[in-house]
């Protein structure tokens, strides 16, 4: 019974995270992407469990291995809203 409640709580948290537009990429390593816009293109801010904050981004088709550090150019050309 306790295991069922834990699974239900986890499912609820995942749904809430997804409702605000975040994408859970890998639960095992705690990898989450956040859609945003950089230079008029949709990209993902990327955070991994254990990192002190969001410090990386990557293109939609690049994935975790394509992560790049958030630099001043990204900050200057980031609109904060995904393109639709």
In short:
By secondary structure, the chain is of the alpha+beta class. Helices cover 27% and strands 31% of the residues.
| General shape | elongated
Radius of gyration, in Å, reads: 15 Å
Series of H and E elements: HEEEEEH
Q: What characterizes the major β-sheet? A: 5 strands, antiparallel
The spatial strand order of the largest sheet comes to 1-2-3-4-5
Our count of helices gives 2
Number of β-strand runs: 5
How far the N terminus sits from the C terminus, by CA atoms, comes to 43 Å
Structural class: alpha+beta
List unreliable stretches of 5+ residues.
none
Q: What report would you give on this structure?
A:
- Helices cover 27% and strands 31% of the residues.
- A hairpin with a 7-residue loop joins strand 3 (41-48) and strand 4.
- It has 84 residues and is an alpha+beta fold.
- It has 2 helices and 5 strands; from the N terminus they run αβββββα.
- The chain is elongated and about 45 Å long.
- It has helices spanning 2-19, 72-76; strands spanning 23-26, 31-38, 41-48, 56-59, 68-69.
């Amino acid at each position: 019974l306790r295991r069922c409640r834990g699974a239900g709580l986890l499912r609820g948290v995942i749904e809430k995270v997804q409702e605000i537009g975040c994408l859970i990429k890998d639960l095992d390593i705690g990898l989450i992407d956040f859609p945003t816009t950089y230079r008029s293109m949709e990209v993902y801010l990327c955070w991994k469990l254990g990192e002190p904050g969001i410090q990386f981004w990557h293109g939609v088709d690049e994935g975790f291995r394509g992560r790049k550090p958030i630099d001043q150019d990204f900050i200057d050309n980031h609109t904060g809203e995904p393109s639709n």
